[in-house]
């Protein structure tokens, strides 16, 4: 799909797909991550604040509990409360001599007041010792205290002449000597409770088990109930944890925790509420600035990509025109594109290629005559000569393919094909070596396949699999390329839809196994027998299978009969050729 696009458009589209879109997506993801992190930090901070309030409240409530434990054993309280006084004077003297409540109130600033309710008609209510009447007996807190021996924490909101209206500890006090009981109330100081919540950044409140607000960041809420709050939800039904909800149409979070006081049965609920808009405001501002900067940088980068692509394509067009002149037969063409980048190097390689082609065309006849006069008696000379037989055949085909394609298409890809051809030509000039590293042979095969891919286009596909452990193995030169050439030529010519060629090099025990396989037309059993016979035929007059015979005889001469070519084929399914090279051959 991209082959029909201009290079300039490819670069711009690649930039958009590979850089711009991913960066914007990642930027959006980072923004979302930072927003989520800001929200999580706010929830964590609020949860920590609620936990801190819970700890402070627990410490504050410990003092009234300790005081109540002490008063349970206070004989002076029992005496002053249970004595029946004949006169007001005696009662006054008893009140003046009893200072336990005043002492604890002065000693602990958390305690606002202490009251003791007892059924003694001779007592007078002095806001410390209070006689129990029918109204007090009917109150919720009095009934609950008389039914339980454990301490109860609740907001006292009764209709006394001077009401308490504070969070108070309520518990039953028994007098063993008289077998009677009274109710002790120790109230916390409201200002101390409110001061604890006043420094909180969000709306925070504390409610007792019945839903009465006993302390709040907003003191005006103290004494009201959770049901009175216009939050759109029933706070009494919210359990512990963080809850997301809408309050007055705004997205908010509610952090709820519970506290069961020491030696008590009541549960206090701590609630902290904050809206997400206030948390997200700074995060949104930073995110917007960050995305704006990223977008501006990407736009500037896109402009530079366009400029670079424009300059690059202009130079490539100049080089393409030189290739067109070469394709038309002008062997004196010279490319004058300057620069040290890849295009400048390609221009210099083009000039080198033109000179090399001109020289090679002059030397082909002379080289062929020299190869025909080599003596075949000695093994080394025979190996070199058999290797050299392959080069002219492929070189002429490759040159003709390049010339015809360049003439008909004027394709820019001619530069890459010529580079590959130059690499093949240099390898061919080195064929005089007895052995070459496997990786160099594979590199030459890749170059050959790329050139043939250029020639046959979609009719040819290939795959090369090489075990890295065998890359430095030494093998005779030009033993793989003829097999690949055979698979390509006969596969493409035999099937209209083309051929797929697969080269596999794998390390098996003490040998390196090389397999060339194609899915071409294949051969019948009779034709396969003829091909196998031609590879072992000592006579060299047979020209149709000279490449296979050359490779087979070189392998047999070098490594023995067991390492020669193994050919298998099935008509209309393809052909497979395999040979092995022993590890004793050595590694570079």
Automatic annotation (TrEMBL):
Residues 310-362 form the HAMP domain. One of its GO terms (cellular component) is plasma membrane. Keywords: Cell membrane, Kinase, Membrane, Phosphoprotein, Transferase, Transmembrane, Transmembrane helix. The chain crosses the membrane at residues 12-34, 288-311. InterPro entries: Bact_2-comp_sensor_kinase (IPR050640), HAMP_dom (IPR003660), HATPase_C_sf (IPR036890), HATPase_dom (IPR003594), Sig_transdc_His_kin_internal (IPR010559). Its main location: membrane. GO terms for molecular function: phosphorelay sensor kinase activity. This is Sensor histidine kinase. It comes from Paenibacillus lutimineralis.
């Amino acid at each position: 799909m991209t082959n029909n696009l201009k290079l300039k458009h490819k670069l711009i589209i690649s930039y958009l797909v590979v850089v711009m879109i991913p960066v914007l997506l990642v930027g959006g993801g980072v923004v979302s991550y930072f927003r989520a992190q800001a929200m999580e930090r706010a929830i964590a901070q609020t949860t920590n604040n609620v936990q801190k309030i819970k700890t402070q409240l627990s410490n504050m409530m410990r003092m009234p509990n300790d005081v109540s434990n002490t008063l349970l054993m206070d004989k002076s309280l029992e005496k002053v409360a249970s004595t029946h006084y004949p006169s007001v004077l005696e009662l006054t003297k008893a009140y003046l001599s009893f200072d336990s409540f005043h002492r604890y109130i002065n000693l602990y600033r958390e305690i606002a007041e202490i009251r003791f309710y007892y059924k003694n008609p001779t007592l007078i209510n002095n806001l410390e010792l209070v006689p129990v009447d029918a109204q007090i007996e009917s109150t919720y807190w009095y009934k609950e205290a008389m039914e339980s021996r454990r301490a109860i924490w609740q907001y006292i909101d009764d209709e006394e002449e001077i009401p308490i209206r504070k969070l108070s500890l309520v518990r039953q006090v028994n007098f063993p000597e008289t077998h009677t009981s009274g109710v002790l109330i120790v109230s916390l100081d409201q200002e101390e409770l409110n001061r604890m919540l006043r420094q909180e950044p969000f709306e925070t409140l504390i409610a007792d088990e019945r839903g009465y607000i006993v302390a709040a960041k907003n003191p005006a809420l103290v004494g009201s109930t959770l049901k009175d709050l216009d939050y759109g939800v029933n706070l009494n039904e919210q359990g512990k944890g963080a809850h997301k909800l809408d309050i007055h149409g705004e997205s908010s979070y509610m952090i709820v925790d519970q506290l069961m006081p020491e030696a008590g049965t009541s549960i206090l609920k701590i609630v902290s509420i904050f809206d997400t808009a206030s948390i997200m405001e700074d995060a949104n501002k930073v995110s917007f600035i960050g995305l704006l900067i990223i977008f501006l940088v990407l736009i500037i980068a896109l402009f530079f990509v366009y400029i670079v692509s424009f300059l690059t394509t202009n130079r490539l067009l100049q080089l393409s025109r030189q290739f067109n002149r070469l394709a038309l037969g002008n062997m004196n063409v010279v490319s004058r594109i300057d620069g040290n980048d890849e295009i400048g190097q390609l221009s210099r390689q083009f000039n080198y290629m033109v000179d090399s082609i001109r020289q090679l065309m002059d030397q082909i006849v002379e080289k062929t005559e020299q190869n025909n006069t080599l003596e075949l008696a000695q093994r080394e000379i025979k190996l070199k000569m058999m290797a050299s037989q392959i080069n002219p055949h492929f070189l002429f085909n490759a040159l003709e393919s390049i010339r015809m394609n360049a003439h008909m298409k004027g394709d820019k890809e001619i530069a890459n094909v010529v580079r590959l051809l130059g690499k093949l030509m240099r390898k061919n000039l080195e064929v005089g070596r007895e052995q070459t590293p496997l990786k160099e042979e594979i590199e030459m095969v890749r170059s050959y396949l790329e050139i043939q891919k250029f020639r046959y286009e979609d009719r040819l596909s290939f795959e090369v699999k090489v075990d890295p452990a065998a890359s430095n193995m030494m093998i005779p030169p030009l033993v793989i390329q003829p097999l690949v050439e055979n698979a390509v030529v006969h596969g493409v010519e035999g099937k209209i839809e083309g051929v797929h060629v697969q080269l596999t090099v794998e390390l098996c025990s003490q040998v390196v196994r090389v397999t060339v396989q194609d899915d071409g037309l294949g051969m019948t059993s009779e034709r396969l027998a003829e091909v196998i016979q031609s590879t072992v035929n000592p006579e060299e007059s047979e020209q149709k299978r000279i490449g296979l015979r050359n490779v087979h005889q070189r392998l047999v001469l070098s490594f023995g009969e067991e390492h020669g070519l193994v050919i298998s084929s099935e008509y209309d399914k393809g052909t497979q050729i395999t040979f092995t090279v022993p590890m004793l051959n050595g590694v570079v």
